[in-house]
Specification:
- This protein has about 140 residues and is α+β, with helices and mostly antiparallel strands.
- It has 2 domains: about 40 residues; about 80 residues, OB fold (Dihydrolipoamide Acetyltransferase, E2P) (Beta Barrel).
- The chain is about 35% helix and about 40% strand.
- Strands 3-2-1-4-5 form a 5-stranded antiparallel beta sheet.
- The chain starts with a helix and ends in a 16-residue tail after the last strand.
Length: about 140
């Protein structure tokens, strides 16, 4: 059976180990983010012809423990297929998500894993406006 002094000694050795593990996890996460940012910056900016093949959302819910407030965060993803058949998925803003549809074709611009934009081709869509300046 542990006495009060033995428990204090055990706590004194467990807390620093726990603290080192937590700081290590935070350090690895920070290093991973910086590494990805540096790697993306070294990649060329590419613009390729693509087709939107799918769209998806991920909704995260959070509830504050000290109040009755609820919060949700929605992340939007679009998958593009390039001419070689490879598929690339990028997180996009909600307004861009709403403006794209499966089957849309256009130019995807990206740098490494960083999404820079999608410009949809408007082929096959013609507006016919009456020519109000035409004489009879």
């Amino acid at each position: 059976m542990l006495t009060g002094l033995d428990m204090l000694d055990m706590t004194g050795s467990v807390i620093p180990v726990f603290l080192i593990v937590v700081l290590g996890i935070i350090g690895i996460s920070a290093f991973s983010g910086v590494y990805r940012w540096l790697k993306d910056n070294k990649q060329p900016v590419l613009t390729v012809l693509t087709t939107v093949t799918s769209k998806r959302t991920v909704v995260s819910y959070r509830q504050s423990s000290d109040s009755d407030s609820h919060r949700s965060v929605t992340r939007y993803y679009v998958t593009f297929e390039v001419e070689s058949g490879d598929r690339l998925e990028f997180e996009v803003h909600g307004d861009e998500y709403g403006q794209t549809a499966e089957g849309d074709q256009g130019n995807l611009t990206f740098q490494g894993s960083r999404y820079l934009g999608f410009r949809r081709h408007m082929h096959g869509y013609v507006r016919n406006y009456p020519d109000i300046h035409r004489s009879h």
